[in-house]
Design a protein that fits this description.
Chain lengths: 417, 256
């Protein structure tokens, strides 16, 4: 008990020293001098509360841990049991989708915008999850496919006047073709070698877009990419020739937030479609074959499975989702340039897959939300933001290397009647 | 070549650089037989297996299965032709469940049209049902039905061996090639394996090509035996003939 007291006292003292120096005092410039200004009594009161909480938490920590273990049954992040029942799970999914659809009508514009960005990352994460999580092929150039999707829409629109809805399936198809073409040279490669080649692929795409100025506009990018329309109704104040703006059609006053809400709902629908398609794929023969290939490709061959075809299908299907996400991204931004498709994007999407738990869809979705929201929430910390972000990732990998929600087995169950 | 010959291997040779691992091996396996391939460690038995099943491309010689030449085909096509094998060290999909292992093995029998799968058409569901039933049937036969939803990697070693054989059988092969199936098994498990192979032969009419070191098992279940030593064919014949062959005794026990 004495050592516990000492430990708690030390922790509380440390909290005070750190808290007081970071929050309690502030450097202000007064003319040419800099003075140390002490914060008001409210700050010190909150700091005191924090110190007391830390002291008692550290003092009773063993007991708190024991209590938590008893109530939560040891595993900290497992799904609550209510989700295991089929009907309840369906109800839960319906409620979540309902809440997500209601969200834009209740939230602020900036929050909706951020949610849309999050959904793009969810799509990318789910697509890469097919390649990395399920088929076990480490792809560091996934952003290349994202870029191909975005530029497919931008170029088709720029040169041939395609609308978003006309270009979306083509963006998916063109990106799938790129995935297929990349698949060929890397068929024989595994692990590190595969990672290097795919990394190179991502860079080649970016550099090509940067230097092929006549076609892509080079570093200046492509601007004035139209937003998606709703059955040809535009969400801008004034429509292009021949089109009617949304607000005029319904006879309501113009509000720029309609556009944001529509983009969000579109992203949500695309994401839900992605989730459903990949959910089905994972339970179909092709999904089982991907996983089997990840486990043991020699055994696959001995059973008559063609590893070449399976690998190519993973690359192709995984890439096509990046294509859809890319086309949507181009439509949302209205402007794209090679700047948007740097390696760091690939790294973030890969981090989403790894943090989420390889192969697990729910995990990837949660990780995508965390990875896009964390930097926003941590904006308060200014320049410490990225440091905090990195720290959280390091801690995640140390304490939970299997990811937030690792893939739950089994997927195919033998039910005996 | 006789009508009933399922597999025939002619003058098979395999060279790795300066090493001639397999030298002019000939083998014939007739439909419904259990044929064993034996020889001291490093004799090239597994290399012969790898050449026949398409994992190596033989340097010369030919492999004819069901009257069709196989030696140029990749492994997965040979497997599709009805010749499946197990491995010396078990190669299961360890992180997948027992039943999933058997579902993957039936990949070629499933409905692989993506659109039909995504839309859950009637035909797709019927095929999935069939595949599931065949998997369950074979789990029942090898006594692993209670472990259907466990991860394959968590099974005991003997169970993993049985699962590997079941995984071959769900592909409905003509020829089952077993590479040291009794390695690492205790005497009870070896006896079970013995009975299982006999039953497969009698009830399924399956033809078996076996590499094995356990001589009592080999002598008990084989119809014919081929002996190789240092890559060269040494002898072949019935278990009785092989047991008495002075060359074979010399190869196994060394010169007197």
């Amino acid at each position: 008990m004495a050592s516990q007291l000492l430990h708690a006292g030390f922790s509380a003292g440390l909290t005070f020293v750190l808290g007081a120096s970071v929050l309690g005092v502030e450097l202000r410039s007064q003319g040419v001098n800099t003075i140390v200004a002490v914060e008001g009594p409210m700050t010190w009161l909150w700091l005191g509360v924090a110190v007391v909480i830390v002291f008692f938490h550290q003092l009773f920590r063993p007991r708190i841990e024991a209590l938590r273990r008893r109530t939560w049954g040891g595993s900290r992040f497992s799904l609550p049991p209510l989700l295991r029942n089929h009907a309840q799970r369906r109800l839960m999914i319906a409620l979540v989708i309902g809440a997500l659809l209601l969200f834009p009508f209740l939230a602020q514009r900036s929050a909706i915008d951020l949610a849309t960005l999050t959904l793009i990352y969810v799509m990318l994460g789910l697509g890469l999850n097919v390649v990395v999580g399920l088929a076990g092929l480490l792809d560091l150039g996934y952003v290349g496919f994202y870029a191909v999707g975005a530029y497919t829409y931008a170029l088709l629109n720029n040169y041939l006047g395609f609308s978003f809805w006309e270009a979306l399936p083509l963006a998916g198809a063109v990106t799938a073709l790129f995935g297929y073409l990349l698949g060929f040279p890397v068929l024989r490669l595994r692990g590190d070698y595969l990672a290097i080649v795919t990394l190179g692929f991502g860079e080649i795409i970016r550099i090509l877009l940067n230097n092929w100025t006549e076609l892509t506009g080079g570093p200046n990018g492509i601007s004035r990419i139209p937003k998606p329309t709703l059955f040809n109704l535009e969400f801008s104040r004034r429509a292009e020739e021949g089109n009617i703006p949304f607000h005029e059609f319904f006879g309501i006053p113009y509000d720029p937030s309609y556009k944001v809400m529509y983009l969000y709902i579109l992203a949500l629908l695309l994401t839900l479609a992605t989730v459903y398609v990949i959910y089905r794929l994972m339970r179909m023969p092709i999904g089982r074959a991907w996983e089997a290939l990840r486990e043991d490709d020699i055994a696959c061959r001995s059973l008559g499975l063609n590893p070449t075809g399976i690998k190519l299908s993973a690359f192709t299907i995984g890439a096509s989702f990046a294509g859809f996400a890319g086309a949507f991204f181009a439509a949302r931004q209205g402007f794209i340039s090679p700047e948007s498709f740097t390696f760091i994007e690939s790294a973030i999407v890969l981090a989403i897959v790894v943090l989420g738990g390889m192969g697990s869809q729910l995990g990837v979705i949660l990780a995508a939300i965390a990875m896009t929201l964390l930097p926003e929430i941590a904006r308060e910390f200014n320049e410490y933001r990225m440091l905090l972000f990195g720290l959280i990732m390091v801690m995640m990998m140390v304490w939970r290397p299997q990811g937030l929600l690792p893939l739950k087995r089994p997927q195919m169950e033998l039910k005996r009647g | 070549m006789a009508e009933s010959e399922l597999l025939s291997v002619r003058d098979l040779s395999m060279r790795f650089g300066g090493l001639l691992a397999v030298d002019q091996v000939n083998m014939d396996v007739r439909s419904g037989e259990v044929v064993s391939l034996i020889g001291p460690n490093g004799a090239g038995k597994t290399t012969v297996f790898n050449c026949i099943s398409g994992f190596y491309r033989p340097t010369s010689g030919e492999v004819v299965f069901k009257g069709r030449p196989m030696q140029r085909l990749p492994g997965f096509k040979i497997a599709r032709a009805g010749m499946v094998r197990t491995f010396q060290n078990v190669r299961l999909f360890k992180e997948m469940t027992v039943i999933e292992n058997l579902l993957v093995a039936q990949h070629m029998q499933t409905e692989r049209n993506l659109l039909k799968g995504l839309l859950l058409t009637k035909g797709y569901r019927r095929r999935e049902q069939e595949v599931m039933e065949r998997a369950a049937h074979w789990l029942e036969r090898v006594g692993l039905i209670d472990f259907a939803n466990r991860e394959a990697g968590n099974l005991a070693y003997g169970q993993q061996r049985r699962l590997e054989i079941a995984r071959c059988m769900v592909t409905q092969p003509r020829l089952l090639m077993l590479d040291e199936p009794a390695a690492g098994l205790n005497p009870n498990e070896t006896r079970d394996l013995n009975q299982m192979i006999v039953r497969l032969k009698q009830e399924e009419g399956i033809t078996v090509l076996l590499i094995e070191h356990d001589m009592s098992l080999v002598m008990d279940i084989s119809d014919r035996i081929y002996v190789v030593n240092q890559g060269k064919p040494l002898a072949d014949g019935t278990p009785q003939e092989i047991r008495c062959n002075p060359e074979v005794i010399k190869a196994y026990l060394g010169e007197e």
